[in-house]
Amino acid sequence: MQEPEEKKIALELLETEQAYVNRLHLLDQVFYTELMKEAKTGKTVPEEVVKMIFSNISSIYQFHAEFFLPELQKRMEDWNRNPRIGDVIQKLAPFLKMYGEYVKNFDKAVELITAWSEKSPPFQELIADIQKRKVCANLTLQHHMLEPVQRIPRYELLLKDYVRKLPPQSPDRGDAEKALEMIFMVAKHSNAAIAEMERLQNLWVVYQRLGLEDDIVDPSNELIKEGPIQKISTRNGTSEKYLFLFNNMLLYCVPKVIQVGAEFQVHLRMDVGGMKVRELRDTEFPHTFLVSGKQRTLELQARSEEEMNDWIK
């Protein structure tokens, strides 16, 4: 007699979980532990660097090895009497939020491995040495480290499949659907963590281009648009300027001639609160618009109709 489809998927979940726990064991108990031991001798890299590379892998490993895998094993042994996994996955889902930390750190971890492998030959040798072992299956540390990043999407796929294959009257239907919804939320959570990290990263780069003026650096700011603009003045026609529009302020900048450090100098900042913007229909200067703040008004000229409309919007 053939196994029911949903049981096959539940077994696949168990088998992949077992393989995943072995991979986590390799990352936490082999790579992390041995690199840390060497770091303590002071011969390879600072301990801090090793901690930064592996982020919270130890918590992730313990959670899967000591809780989730054993729970799944118990379930599958008892499947014929009690065919369900939905409730176990519901218990798992909230803990998957700790992946946000690991996923957010992943790119930085890979950069650190590359940088320190160049700086410290003993560090590189130790990694190469571990990678030669049979347990590594000819794969690099970076490759193994990608596994946790891919694990939550994998749960999502398996569980979607499981819910699809469940007979309508299955006792696990309600629980499995709820579990899928929870996993879906967690997957979104780790994507949000990545998006937030990218936003802060980009914001920091903008602040560096502006010379890190204290009153401008604020992590909650959001850059909406930036780009070159012509400033119109009666005396000397137009001159090239540059705008940064944030959610709370407009920075009116001058490109620096000598680009050491900052790229721009902030000439004026205008609060977005109370700002007025309108198009000027000027035949001599096409695509111009006025931006008025509390203190002063700027007459600006864009390079095209489209660009002007973008700014105004």
Automatic annotation (TrEMBL):
Major place of localization? cytoplasm
The Gene Ontology biological process terms listed for this entry are: cytoskeleton organization; filopodium assembly
All copies of domain PH, residue ranges: 222-313
Where does it localize? Answer: Cytoplasm, Cytoskeleton
The molecular function terms in GO held by this entry are:
guanyl-nucleotide exchange factor activity; zinc ion binding
Q: Name one Pfam family in it.
A: SOS1_NGEF_PH
| Annotated DH domain residues | 5-193
Specify the protein name. Answer: FGD2 protein
Q: Which organism is it from?
A: Hypocryptadius cinnamomeus
